[in-house]
Every structure is written in structure tokens, then in C-alpha cells.
Amino acid sequence: PARVAAVKPSSMYASGSESLIKQAREIQEEELHKFCVRISKLLVNQDYGNETVDSLQRLYLIFSATKYGRILPPDLLKKLQSLLCSPHSSEQLQALASAILRETLYFGLHSLCSEEVQDSRTVSYVSAVILAQVRVKDEVSALVHRLLKCLESRQPEAQSTRHLLPVLSKIISLSPESLTEDHINLVSRKLVDWLRYASIQQGVSMSSGGFFTGPRTRQPGPITEVDGTVAADFFTVLCVGHSYTDDQWMNLYAFSMIRKWLLCYDTEGSGNADSAAEHKKVLFIQSVQDDRSEVDGSVMSMVSATSTSSRLLPPKERLREKAFEYCHRLIEQSDRMPNRSRDDNGHYL
Questions:
Q1: Residue 195: partners with Cβ closer than 8 Å, 6 or more residues away
Q2: What is residue 15's predicted lDDT score, i.e. its pLDDT?
Q3: Whose CA, among 97, 170, 241, 257, lies 20 to 30 Å from 345?
Q4: pTM metric for this prediction
């Protein structure tokens, strides 16, 4: 009986979900139109409370539950676009507007391609709609231009550019030819900065405080290795901290897409004799990795020997070099034993 009782809530949840999806698929056009009119009135009155959120969630369910696309009334379509593009909208409302617009039948993207949208969070949600609706290559090119403009600009303190890298990664998968050589060089330089020069101090975090005291800001400490020692070298995905800075998050996102980027754009192009020689040094370093016990010291010495002139390398070759340094540091970090805490009796936690 206990086992039956334990299974019952999940089965009830599944049957309830199936019932909602069935209702969403069977809704008639007339009823859907009335529902859309009601949502439009809520948005006109700028009523962004629980009723509006609940209605938008139901509308998304209706649009996503069917295999065929539905058409939004022009009035509601315009309001959802305005809600999506407004930097003053809450992230929850932007996410819902973006999700609904991705599920609708194709509509003109001119209003979404406005240069007025500058903050990275809004650009990321708008980009998701454009990539789902895009029909013309020029629309992707315009999106790339806007993304890179956001990556170059200094974002407000509350904003983060880390929303943009997943969008850029999707563009590489869908339309790699949309990036020009200038775009590729720009992103390569940014990837070098994110991979190699992220802070090794932890981000500022808030402590919960005690019963009589409110939350307090913790002073950021140093990033550590997995074995608990302070990180003396540059930040990687294997470094440990209680909270992370924005450039550390960019480091994580950059590493997640570096393989795709190098496979797509790291081609042997034109270069001077010096850059070719530097590249041969890197290739030589890679060729002697089989016996790591003997070459660990020589690898890092050769990398440091080339680092002086690495800033003179073309962006793509410099990225290749820094990516190699990053991967070599990951191998070194992987040899460390994790730091495991013990309780009062000496047992591992």
C-alpha cells in the first residue's frame, strides 16, 4: 500500500499533464481568439501580475502542443514584440514572449532587428526568436552584427554578456558563413581574453546571516584548485570557488564552445614566416605529449618562450596557442586529488 501511495502522485501528475496538453490541442480558433484578446487587454493596461504570467504560460502551451504553427492576432503579436524588446520588462515576461513568438508561424522580423536593443539579456531573447523564424541569410548577418556589437560594448553592471555566447554557438551551427573574416578575428581575440585572462579571485557573494543579523557581503577570496590549494595559475573550468565573477563565467562558456569554433574557423590561412614558425613550435609541443612524465617541464618552458611573441600572431593562431595552454593546464589539474573534508571522528564527508 505504501508503495502504491508513493507512485500515485507522479501518475496523477502525468495524467494531469496529458489532460492539459489534450485541451491545448483541441482548443477551437474562436475560443483561442477570445483568449488572445483577453491577453492583449492585460498587456495594454500594463498588468504584468500573476494573471498575465499565467495566461502567457497557457498561450505558450497551446502554441507548442500542436505540430502545426498557429497565427497570432496582429495586435497581440505587436504587443509581445514590444514586451520582448523592452529592457524594462522582467526576465520572466521576456522569456515567455520569446517562447511564444518562436512557436508562431513566420512573421516579419524587421521590428526585432532594430539597433535600439542594446542590453545583452534582451538581445539574447530576441536572437532566439530570430533564429527560430529566420528565412533570409541577411537577417542572420544583421543578428551577428548586433551580437558582436554587444560583446564589444561595456554592459551595465546588472547585465552580463554571458547570455550571448550560447546564441553565437547556435549561429555557428546553423549558418557559419554568416561571420566575416573581421567577425572571426574579433571573436578569436575575445575568446583569448576569456580563456586566458579571467580573474583568479572569487566573486562577491552574500551570506545568509544569523537570526539577529541580516545578509552580509562576503569579501571575495582566492579561487582554489580541486585539492584546496590556492590557484597560482590562470582560471579554468576545474577551478573551485563559492561564487564566480562575470569574466569567469565567460571563461566557462568560452571553453564549452572552443572545440566547435576551432573546427569551424581554425583553417590554415595566409601568414608570414614568423607566424608559421610559431605555429610549428606549437605543433611540436603537441607531438611530444605521449610521455608526459618527461616533457611536462619542457612543454611549459616552450610555451613561455613563445608567449613573448604570441601577441604578434594573427588572432586565430593566437587563439590556437592559448587553447593549447588551457588544455595543458586542465591535464595538470586533473592529476590533483580532490580535497575531501572530514567530520569530528575523522570520517570523510
A1: 251, 254, 255, 258, 319, 322, 323, 326
A2: 60
A3: 241
A4: 0.72
